[in-house]
Amino acid sequence: MPDTTIQDTSPQDGAYNYGYLDEQTKRMIRRAILKAVAVPGYQVPFGGREMPLPYGWGTGGIQVTAAIIGREDTLKVIDQGADDTTNAVSIRRFFARVAQVATTTHTAEATIIQTRHRVPETPLTDGQILVFQVPIPEPLRMLEPRETETRTLHALSEYGVMQVSLYESIARHGRIAKTYNYPVMVNGRYIMSPSPIPKFDNPKLDRSPALQLYGAGREKRIYAVPPHTPVKSLDFDDHPFEIETWTESCALCGSTESFLDEMIVDDTGKRLFVCSDTDYCESRR
Amino acid sequence: MSAPLLSARGVGKRFGGRVACHDVSFDLWRGEVLGIVGESGSGKTTLLNCLAGRLLPDSGSVTYETKSAGSVDVHRLSEARRRLLARTEWGFVNQDAREGLRMGVSAGANIGERLMAVGARHYGEIRGQAADWMTRVEIDVERLDDRPNTYSGGMRQRLQIARNLVSNPRLVFMDEPTGGLDVSVQARLLDLLRGLVEGLHLSVVLVTHDLGVARLLTHRLMVMQGGTVVEQGLTDQVLDDPQHPYTQMLVASILPV
Q1: Contact, A39 vs A70, CB < 8 A?
Q2: Which domain holds residue A280?
Q3: What ipTM was estimated for this complex?
Q4: Contacts of B108 in chain A (CB under 8 A)
């Protein structure tokens, strides 16, 4: 069924500017992105705009995408690895309307991938851009409540407190129990929150050929990891960083290498493990 | 002995029109414990904060003889270097242990923080050192993984001391370390402090209003009143033969038990 609203919001009729945001705003966001790329891992403040979705649903990611998207782009949007969840579907439709871009669910075909909570299983390539939606950009937030102090800590590279939190985790649980939003050191300089992706995905950030952009709408921060930048997950010498493993394989595609979601499928508590990355899973069936 | 470890020249600080301390000068040598006594509001804590680089004085200078980089003007250092100094060569013991500790993390993490801040990345070694320091400040090692908010006041204070001493500082600033503790706990803490100061050859600047603490711990004493130093000298000399009327009053006001 043709979507008539595409014509309604074309740039000619003046309802919305191309890509929803006005050109001044895009320029401001692009400046922030350029700065973020120039200083990998550093959080650049920007003048976040109201977007037609609530905070926490991806306002940061959607602004970054709106600022970089062009007619030739192909957009993929994933939420928890899936292309067909509500948030992913609405953001994809939003950009199909306001930017008239082609959309896809195939990782390899996309030029821009906006994501929440996952990095696709299919390895990214040169020229692709991964846009993360970030709820809390400050990795030190839960350890140091004062914003002025966290900025000083970043400026002076004083990261003892981050290590303290990992120490505490081992002391309490016998291992580093953090499984998502696992802090990373970018380019040997800034500690960065990788957004709430599972730590399973952390190794994919390291020296990735794709550009990674992180947008936090509520906190109005943008940060970035340029292609091929070293990203190291923090750990101890005697408690090295490890990713999750499963004894099961995906019930649909049989993969033993992807991140699996556990689902309870009936009232008797029967469990099923399936790939969280729907595109990856479908391509293997 | 070459240069004094810490030397203050004409240090003054005012808050608006109110003078907190005025024209304070002294030298502190290695292994020496200097006491600053005086009544509440006499500028002791302000002076201590100025010395420790936590407050910028309006006049005067504070020079510190570093381990390897010669003497530095504490207030002209970059913030990065001053903070590095503060967590390696210095210690700061607050009156309220809650200000000096991370109450949300275990005692081991509290002690290990300085080690991790300067790059220690071996969990087992950090924990070993933390346990060692727990023993040295007489806290049961079994409490290593407990949070300080489950500790008593005296234990918290000892933990705070361990947290500061783990980096082998040369100079420790103490602001009423025994304040708010009951007398028997105070006595044990004083014993502990005296042992540590002697054993580690620490230099200490100790602020207190308690002349008993000053008598037990300090070698030299500065008496402050209204922001100025009214009398200074060897502790025994000042306490046994006070010259200034205010010091005489202070000494006379100790309750005989």
Answers
A1: no
A2: 245-285
A3: 0.87
A4: 167, 171
